[in-house]
Amino acid sequence: MASEPLVRFYDLSGPKPWSPACWRTRYALNFKHIPYECVKLPYPAVKPKCRELLSPTIEDRDATVPIIEILQEPYVVLNDSTPIAELLSERFPEKDGYPEIKLVKEVEKYEEETIFRQRAIFRWICYDVWKNALDDKDGSREYFKTTREVNLGSLETITERRGGGDAAVYEDHKVQWLGLKERMAKEDGTGEPSYIDFFDASLFRYVEAANAEKGVRLMNLYEDDTFTKLMNKVKPYEGGPGGI
Ligand SMILES: N[C@@H](CCC(=O)N[C@@H](CS)C(=O)NCC(=O)O)C(=O)O
What we know:
Blueprint: E1 7-12, H1 20-31, E2 36-41, H2 46-53, E3 67-70, E4 76-79, H3 81-91, H4 107-113, H5 115-133, H6 140-152, H7 158-163, H8 166-176, H9 178-185, H10 195-210, H11 212-219, H12 226-234
Parallel strand pairs: 1-2
Antiparallel strand pairs: 1-3, 3-4
């Protein structure tokens, strides 16, 4: 029998798990073998759920998923994937049998250093997220389109307008993932994943869930085993409630 959940994890709805920030929390929960349940929220429900659980006055920009509730005493609720990983380390420590995730603190700097990569991804797949990754019956697609198009204009033409077209954005990816390529060149793809590996893998899963063909192209970005090694490392931690 499965153990009683110790954590409730809020992810976004959609045919497949796709939100990169939520992927990071799923990887962390699975890596630490913490029993949890997963609640999938429609996009328009994210801000109301944050106001209900976190604070009625939370700023719009901070009202995001993932959110976790720790169900055992003392009860805690928190959102934002890196603080969540830190909290999980604190509440489920190695001395109690929960494996420690390496390089959690280092991810903040890594995220800053790779900000252009995240921009390249967004420009490449924003329209695909709307078209393929979101639930088409629970209001998520309408919400995403309306909230993004206010600032970005038509989602359909973002790659063209802001990324310089598909070929240009793909060339940009070749530059933006070089750090991963160098890291994986020193590994055989069988070692223990760090939180930085989970961060990179979450972005790969994001692209793949938005557009399977772009997922294949990213996998083959360097025509080598960079992404195969990365995804082999994280594979054991992708199942569980709401996973794949
Ligand atoms: N820095 C945050 C980012 C979280 C984030 O941007 N989540 C998106 C989904 S991927 C969200 O909840 N957006 C809510 C909205 O746009 O209303 C983290 O790492 O958790």
